[in-house]
């Protein structure tokens, strides 16, 4: 995500000829997009994205269970 934001910022600076980026080659300006594609390919290939999504869902599920136990007067389990 950071590569994408940096790429958009550099692209705008180059297009508007703003600051030091105006003199850079287009290859340097567009390189963060290539890094973003490489990052997403790696994250999907290794399962990083899915693992983070599952961890987030597990935290939400546990919070929901703890809230329901509190409503019933049962102390939540400590992990």
Largest β-sheet summary: none
Overall geometric form: elongated
- The structural domain count equals 2
Order of helices and strands: HHH
Determine the mean pLDDT.
92
What is the share of helical residues?
over 70%
Strand content: under 5%
Poorly predicted regions: none
> Which radius of gyration do the C-alpha atoms yield?
22 Å
Please tally the helical runs, counting DSSP H or I stretches of 4 or more residues. Answer: 3
Structural class by helix and strand composition: mainly alpha
What does the model show?
It contains three helices and no strands. With 79 residues, the chain is an all-alpha fold. The protein has two domains: 1-46, no CATH class; 49-79. The longest helix is centred in the last third of the chain and has 25 residues, at 48-72. It is elongated and about 65 Å long. It starts with a helix and ends in a 7-residue tail after the last helix. The mean pLDDT is 92.
Q: In a few lines, what is going on in this structure?
A:
By secondary structure, the protein is mostly helical. It has helices spanning 2-15, 26-46, 48-72.
């Amino acid at each position: 995500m950071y590569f994408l934001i940096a790429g958009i910022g550099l692209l705008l600076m180059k297009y508007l000829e703003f600051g030091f980026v105006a003199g850079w080659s287009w290859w340097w300006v567009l390189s963060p997009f290539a890094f973003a594609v490489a990052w997403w390919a790696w994250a999907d290939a290794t399962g990083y994205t899915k693992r983070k999504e599952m961890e987030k869902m597990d935290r939400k599920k546990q919070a929901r269970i703890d809230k329901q136990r509190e409503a019933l007067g049962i102390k939540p389990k400590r992990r």
